[in-house]
Amino acid sequence: MSRFGLLLVLTLLVVGCGQKPKSNPPPPPLQDSGADMAPGAMRKGEEKGEGRGHPHRLMAGTWRAVRDHVTVSVEAMPKLDDDDDFFMVAVYVQNRSPNAAVQFTNWKDPGQVTLKDATGKRYPLVPISALVEKSLRETKTESAPEYGAGPVLPDQARMTFLKFDRAVQSAEYLDLDLDGAPVGFQEPILFRIPKEVLGARTPAQEKAVKDELAKVQGKWRLVSIERDGKRPQPPAGVEAFVTVKGDQWTLTVTNEKGRSECTIRMDPATNPGTFDLIRTIKLENGEPFKIVEKGIYKLEGGTLTVCANQGVERYDPTRPRPTSFQSGGGNSVRVLQRVDK
User: Fold this and answer.
1) pTM of the model
2) Of 48, 94, 97, 216, whose CB count within 10 A is highest?
3) What's the CATH number of domain 42-197, 1.20.140, 2.60.40, 1.10.286, 3.30.70?
């Protein structure tokens, strides 16, 4: 591997650029499955969305041919830019014969999708740029859903993205309606709201987060990376370092040009603690695109171990946050040792 190639691998592994929207395992089958459902019908039941507390409903009836065991998962996503709301919708079908596939129609027609805030104001669905569409279509991992309209099979989910012409001004409630089936967000979509208006943590919780971030300030040497049981070895004389200053995480590689920067968010409220690495890249046409790497961490003396959900080649926002320090399933485990504070 060339040194340039190694730099690219290290950069993507440590910063997390390269995958696609969140391929959680499908929720359990609905208990009241049975006869075919009419368009617009919705089954009872809610589940919590991973990590952020966004409930999403289990629905059916939003495609041309809908039968039982169809699940729709709606997740609030990082914004494509600073002006619009952005959602990922994944469609699963369970216990179905390949000969009875659901046909997903993508919710692209006028009137199929509406979004409104607590005041009742409605916001229009707007198109996603051709470059972003192209990137999403080309993004493919073995377990990831297919992008866009088409058949939904037991072993192949489908997904799409919805973008709305509105800017989040405060911690507010949103109502999303898909073909007459409402998706009620029972809590504000905190992940996408400017931090200065969040007000999401108590003073004690906020102090715990700041104290945890203070513990990782300084310079760290990347001593190992493991992905799917493999540990790539750098050429002689090449080392990777991470410097944490405030909420900025900066990767540099010796004997190589370039550096990569992102914002780090840490939360010690769970065991293990969680972290997000966030950075914005520019697409070919200059549009900003936000990449969020989700992971868990543990700090033991001068050793920081992190396990993250992003791979090397493509960004995949469907990937769930890891729950253990295992490198399988596309997760990567990195070990860093403190150099100085």
Assistant:
1) 0.46
2) 216
3) 2.60.40
